[in-house]
Each structure stands twice: as structure tokens, then as C-alpha cells.
Design brief:
Layout (H helix, E strand, L loop, with lengths): L4 E2 L3 E5 L11 H9 L4 E5 L3 E5 H4 L8 H20 L3 H12 L7 H8 L3 H10 L4 H19 L4 H7 L5 H12 L3 H21 L1
Parallel strand pairs: 1-4, 2-3
Antiparallel strand pairs: 2-4
Helix pairs in contact: 4-5, 4-7, 5-6, 8-9
Length: 202
Amino acid sequence: MDRRHGAPGHWTASESQAGGVSANSSALRTVRGAFPLPRQVQVHQNALIFGKTDMELPVVTHNADLLATVAPQLEAELAQQLAQKPFSEQAKGILKQLLAGQRPGIQDLAKELHVSTRTLQRRLTEQGISFQRLLEEARRELARHYLLHSSLELNETAYLLGYEDANSFFRAFHHWEGTSPGQWRVLQRNSQQTGQAQVGAA
């Protein structure tokens, strides 16, 4: 299933991905009834194509009351987990949350921690780390996570880590790992597959 910003909504059904079903199969007749939209069959992939205006409509199942009920508990559990860690780890965890298409400054982190910038600098110094190093560690850990556990393009990863361009991310990653992000991802995934194969053969 694939969602895209397209022109008017429509759907396509792939014969190869649908297990070789025919255009007149009962499965496709069911889909046609559920989605009375312009359609194509026997194409190279299954997809639902949504128009941009469709994507801007409110979510029908949105439940503000339910969200208001569960959100405080989730936030409390997260705060409890962070509170059990050293201050620098708490700060790093918050930095990872702030690193979403932007580059947070020390003032942003201090605001989230409800302390002054001077207090934040002092507490980090007491633990032998600077804000810049903490930011770099947060980026490095997030980069490894994104590369291992997502199919994000490298330029998308660079954006999520707050880099102005992909080249800046590539240089930083090469400094951390001694290789390019793409090559590191391939090596790690090959290593995982080899390890799984060895476990299966044991």
C-alpha cells in the first residue's frame, strides 16, 4: 500500500503482487466496491493514490479525549525513565527529540530542562562534557539508528539530524565511523544477515 500526494485519488492493483489475481477476481471486485475510484489493474505495484486535498482532511478517528487521557501517562513514564539517568544522558535524550529538522542551540535545551543556560553549562561541565560534544553524540546515535532501522534516504537522514545539507552530514559521519553513511549501512546489514544465518545453522 502506498500513499502519495497526487492528483485526484485513485487506486491500482498489481497482478504480480496480488498473487496473480485476474481483473475479474472476487478479491478485486471487493476492492472496487470498497474504493469507488478510478482504478487500474495489472500494473507493477499495488497502491492507493491520495490527492493533496484528501491528505489535508481531518482524521475521522481522531479522539482528542483519548489522547488527553493517555498522553500525560506516556509523558510521565518518559520523564521517569529520563530521571533515572545521569543529567548528561537526560539532556542528550531531549536533544534527540529536538533534532527533528532543526539544529537546537543550548538555549533550546535549557528551556526544555527548565534551567538557565548558565546552570546547564555548569552541570554539563561537572560531568565532563560540553554542549557541542553532547549534540554530536546525539546526532551520531540517531544517525546509526536511522541507518540501521529505517529506509530513509541519506538526504532525509541529514535533514532529520539538523544538517544544512547532505554533504555536511557525510563529512561528520565519515569522521565518526571512518566510512560513508551508505557504505556503513551496507556493512552493518550484511553483518546482521551473516549473524542470523550462523544462528540458523547452529
